[in-house]
Amino acid sequence: MMQSVEEFAPDIVFCPYLKKYLPKEIFLKTPTFILHPGIRGDRGHNSLDHAIREEKKEWGVVILRANEELDGGDVYAEVRFLMRGTYKASIYRNEVARAASKALKELLANLADKNFKPTPQLKSQMHHYLSQQDRAIDWEKETTKEIIKKIYMSDSYPGVKDEFLGLECYLFGAWQEESLRGEPKEIIAKRDGAICVGTVDGALWISHMQEVGRFKLPSTYALKERIKGVKEMRIPLISEVGDITFHEISSKVIGDVGYLYFNFHNGAMHSEQCIRLKYAFEHLKESCKVIVLMGGEDFFSNGIHLNILQDSKKHGEDGWSNINAMNDVVKSILFADEVITIASLHRNAGAGGVFLALSCDHVVAQEGVVLNPHYRTLGLSGSEYHTFSLARRVGEEKAGELLNECLPISANRALKIGVIDKVFEYNDYFKSLNEFAQKLCEDEDVYSDFLYEKEDYISQNSSQIEQKKEEELRVMYREFWEEDSSFHKLRYDFVYKVCSLQTPERLKRHKCRGKVSKDSGITSDIVIKH
């Protein structure tokens, strides 16, 4: 950290996600500010965990001036938000992320204001670090609601430590079950990688487990042969939005517009999920004129499922299966000439998930969304027809730049360079999205003309489009199957969360010195680092 700060020589240091203690050599030399995911007076680790545990209705973030006292510095910005009844990672990725962005703007404005005086931090007692003893589930006494809250407050780290059928593991992903019943801690059913477990007053689904010393997997993948004979409790391919049970794919139809949700954990899509999504899309287009791909609660999509590939004993085979299944989804959408398709990027997307979105006729995004339209940091060249869809939108030169520089881009930047078509404001996003979708099918002549032109374009270009996909796969074949492929090492590091020891060179190359925009209220030169 000290080396990076010395090399970069910033005017200020901002720490949005500090996981290690900051060396005093940094904050004594350079004004340093720390984002804390709690309100003024909240001090210590596990801030959001405690907020969920105590069922806070309102919470917030503060930006503190770093000093030698943990969370004891003066407050330079504070933003509040209402809490949702959901798991910690979702609150962090949504409410906390938006509040942090707003607080950062407030911080910069306050630093530019000569009359600003920071607010002293309240010297309240520091809350205790939540141990696994605090998080442990008493299956014989605790209700479904109490168990779900413990899993919610422990997601996505550290999880709730438990033991199932001799497997010592951490639990993640809790879903309430409305109909099934069983004895406390009895595994009564399985579905799409999740297991249904009985409680004293009902049942719940646990979608993911992490064996001690390994990495997170769908529960049935972690338990493997231990659950042989457990009943597969199937449900319709597409659930109705709001069903109280575990489901990954659901839909909602408004007029002639169908909204297709695919809530895959962390946006990762393994082969079987891709197959189900393809058939869900095929089914929905039979009754709708416009289909909107909605993605999940926390991500639109992040492409292929690296954890399952790491768990596989046949990395090449399963990787090849996964990318081909992903391509089949994209092909169904790309060549769907009987409906208009829209990708709704109201959550972040990465790698193949970005190019899944670009297979649609229209791509719209919510302000604040971040896209990572590249693969190379994992040793992959990628497929999902990206050599066609990205170049069609931004041209060959810009497409190569995005794929090789491996930098994130904001929704507004994506709009400016042509990656996406529209950006809607956060507050009215779903209203704006529905109005946009409904308008596409209001005028029957305009709608028919669009589909006619689309059909004609596909008819004339399908062979060239397929050829591009085949060229992508020729390159990817080596990346999946050859033992010396960098993908295997990079995938391992990603899955086991091996942290970089220094700032990646690609980020160091993309620093620039410039002016902050006028609307921020700052006129002095600052260093901007992507």
TrEMBL record:
Residue ranges of domain Formyl transferase C-terminal in the record: 130-216
Annotated TM spans: none
Pfam family membership, one: Formyl_trans_N
SUPFAM superfamilies: ClpP/crotonase, FMT C-terminal domain-like, Formyltransferase
GO MF entry, a single one: catalytic activity
Residues annotated as domain Formyl transferase N-terminal: 2-106
PANTHER family in UniProt: HYDROGENASE MATURATION FACTOR HOXX
Protein name stated in the entry: Hydrogenase
